[in-house]
Amino acid sequence: MSDNYNSAHTFRPGGGMGGMRRFGTGEKAKPASIYSMFVRIYTHARLEWPSLIAAVVCVIAVSLLEFVVPQLTRFTIDHLIPNKRFDRLFLIGGGVLGAAIALGGLRFISTSLMASIGQKVLYNLRNDLYRHMQSLDVSFFDRNRTGDLMSRVTNDVSILQQMISSSMMQLFTDFFTFTAIAIYMLWIDWRLTLLLLATFPFMILTTRVFGKRMRSSFRTVQESVADVSDHLQNSLTGIRLIKSFTAESYESERFSERTRKNMDANIQVVRLRAAYEPIIDFLNYIGLAIVLVFGAWLAMKDQMTVGTIVAFIAYLRLLQNPIRHFSRIINTIQQSAAAYERIMEVINTKAEIIEKKGAIALPPLRGHIAFSSVSFAYSNESKVLDAFSLELEAGKVTALVGSSGSGKTTIAHLIARFYDPQDGVITIDGYSLKDVTLDSLREQIGIVSQDIVLFNGTIGENIKYGKHDSTEAEVIAAAKAANASGFIESFPQGYDTQIGERGVKLSGGQKQRLSIARAILKNPRVIILDEATSSLDTESEQYIQDALAQLLRGRTCLVIAHRLSTIQQADQIYVLEQGCIVENGTHDELLRRQGRYSQLYELQFPQTDAAQ
């Protein structure tokens, strides 16, 4: 790769891209509220409305059944025991056991239904997140670390699972139970109930104070998990580089630093929870003390029966259970809220490269490309191109040469509209790139780069990536045209051979020929060759030059090259320095001028001769 952008983003094992964590234009995202989280979850969950209604019915039935046992207890103490009604005892016991069985069954049904709904919500949310990431432009991925994005799609979405599957149902159950029991207790004795409810504002205040701190701590935990994931992804990808520099100990220390931050963040969360739960329990015991003292006082004055006091204590526990549950669920909610914030940071990020309203589909191209006074800079860096103009004639081979950082690869990226220039216009066959749909543009452009991207799968699947609906015969024909069929058929499994992650089982020349076969299968009108042969040996280069001759026939081609031997037959060669064209012409014309191209040629060809 050969411009300022690429030199600024070199790979560093375990380091990601400079530790960057930026979204959109770099503005700090507004924290997503818990309310907005529940609204979005409900938006997905309501699609499963039959299961949702069934779960709600089960919850209401559970809440109503929980009234039964305290009433049976009160009736036994106040009526059966004083009247010695032995004949009713078995009925009471059967009623308690029947209620317990019914409660167990209803809870099983509601939990199973909510787990199913939760998984479907997560399925949709994760797909929405991934689909949105696919829609974002290249600059988004320049700004953000791969490991961090992976963590948001996997870890952060998974964190929501527990809350959706169980915590949301528990919250709904507790809210319904709390409301119903509070009304019933007010009806039994409003004075005692109001004394109990007086402790709840303190519980709410405590929950709010600790909730904010927990959410911040959970956010730190999840960011540290993303750091660990990013380091792991980079170090595993660069394991050969690490071993070649005997940097195993160095990387282990760096990994330990990240896992230590994760450990410290988790300890902070545990400490907050350890302080929060005893406070809630203490407030619950205050409520129990009020019932015992004030209830006993009322019983001594014959204003309340003993059975009613026992039932009141049972209802008190039912009333306090939602608070106890919430004190535990708050951890899940705050952790989920922190995860949801990180997810929404991605979803709320808007693509910078977008199709204008009314963009047209680009018709089949001839391939004439023109840059008119184009200026471009990556982010806030200095300009790579400034008032730059260039024409690529249709059906011709145009080559760009020059020093690293002169803007050659940037030109290729602008043609594919991976980025938009800040000023100027780029046209293809007279159509401004901003006036046509992205799909119709990129479908007619093929890129063969020095940095070959192959996916873990078979050889055939990787070639077919150029055209997903291609037949086996078309795949074989493309491989033959790319001079790749020979080595493919030498493998026992042929086109079904697994190539490993990033094509690790193939040589550099073999990988490059697969990428050319993929481009041939796509059959684009415009071909961009970005240092396509710079890292190959002489034999591999000859194979690939023959393959490229097949690929380029009748197409517009832009060749970016350091090896001047690969572009001697180009129809036009442009020499770039610092984003400007310093000379242009054919190979022979440029040599005769004794300018910058001639200097580059004289530097390279003694080495080439020596190698031969």
Architecture overview:
With 612 residues, the protein is α/β, with parallel strands linked by helices. It has helices at 4-7, 34-45, 49-65, 68-83, 89-135, 138-143, 146-188, 190-197, 200-237, 239-244, 248-300, 306-347, 408-415, 438-442, 459-464, 472-481, 485-490, 508-522, 538-552, 587-593, 596-611, and strands spanning 369-376, 385-392, 397-402, 423-428, 431-432, 445-449, 526-530, 556-560, 572-577, 580-585. A six-stranded mixed sheet has the order 6-7-8-3-9-10, with helices on both faces. It has a four-stranded antiparallel sheet with strand order 2-1-4-5, with helices on one face. Helix 18 runs parallel beside helix 19. It is elongated. Mean pLDDT is 78; it is low at 1-21, 25-30 and 607-612. The chain crosses the membrane at residues 47-69, 89-109, 171-188, 194-211, 279-298. It is found in: Cell membrane. Keywords: ATP-binding, Cell membrane, Membrane, Nucleotide-binding, Transmembrane, Transmembrane helix, Transport.
Descriptive tags:
612 residues, alpha/beta, ABC transporter transmembrane region fold, Rossmann fold, 21 helices, 10 strands, 62% helix, elongated
